[in-house]
Amino acid sequence: MDAARLPVAQAYAKAHPQVHANIVTFDGDGNGATTLQTKIQLWNRTGKGWPDVLFSEQVNDPVWMAQKPFEFAAPVKDLLKQDVLGQWPASSTAQCTINGTQYCVQDNLAQVVLWVNKTLMDRFHYAVPKTWQEWASLGEKVATEHPGYIVGNVGDSFSHWIYLWGNQCPLEQVHGTSVHIDATDSHCTRVAGLLDPLIKNGTVPPLSVFTPDFAQKYGGADSKVLLMPGPSWYAQAVFDQALHVPAKQITAAPPLQWGTDTPVTTGQVGGGPWIMSRHSTNLTTAADFVTWATTVFNPSGADARPGYPAYAPLATKWLEQQAANPYYAADPTPALKAAADQIWPGWNLVSYPDQPVWSTSVITELVAGKPLSSLLEPFGKALKQAAQAAGYAVD
């Protein structure tokens, strides 16, 4: 599991002293899947070493884990109670279903909302935008009136999940063993056209929120982040822990709408799955742990879960905690709750990681000064090559 999930494993071990728990953390980022694939192949060859349960940051890991040559993931149907499984949203269950069989449960949802620095917006007398066009217009205004402040960023390995997924750009539409990828679709090009002036004027820099450079430029008590489209876990992981934005400044607004298009759709960044091993000799305990981790574990205060629980009854309790959280400038929960039902279902899980493709094909070139509009075609081509290398037919 990743470091963020370590507290839940430790808490389970403490609450269940009769269970011998061997907890191992690993790199779960977009490049970590290759390491995990290598390990699973080694365990398969030696016939030993498989963990009973895995957590991955990569939502697409269950796809390859369920299929040859890996065949690691166990179907959850007979391991978790059906009345419990029914409490995950349909969109979440779909993320874990491969060829009609459910192989995992999501720990959390990672729906994209618009994060707002209410303190700065009030100080500058700006209204919170409701559409992408209003957001872009405000970005142009900020560049002129308050240079150095930003309304977003596009330098993370998952930035396409924020801007392209939410705007229905068809990059991962799976039909059986084929995948439809069209980075030149109008839903993609219109986003690039919107972003390019903001990248150029500095209000949407091609810099990752997790870099020291970003924190130095835009974080701290004098935060320069006015607005930020991003997932539900940004409040704690980015604004509080990475950027050290003081309390009583940040809140969430609903996902941005494209013009008058309905329904409003948004992207997702994460929503990592818990996956049980079909090789485990402790599946009953593994299932008990996964059930506890996803439906019971809900600490409060500084130890609160970083993300929006995928299990609906736990999400309700978590939202109550967030509504009372003194870190926020205003209650973020209406926006978070609404966005949970607005994740666009038009992106499906694929067996290859797309984050390294985005980083190599797009971010590197943005940093070099190239416009995003000129990079969509090579990005799409690189995605198609990755899909074909993974065994998909591409249309």
UniProtKB/TrEMBL annotation:
Name of the protein: ABC transporter substrate-binding protein
Report which superkingdom the organism of origin falls in.
Answer: Bacteria
What Pfam families does the entry give? SBP_bac_1 (PF01547)
Q: What is the species of this protein?
A: Amycolatopsis mediterranei (strain S699)
SUPFAM superfamilies named in the record: Periplasmic binding protein-like II
- InterPro entries listed in its UniProt record: SBP (IPR006059)
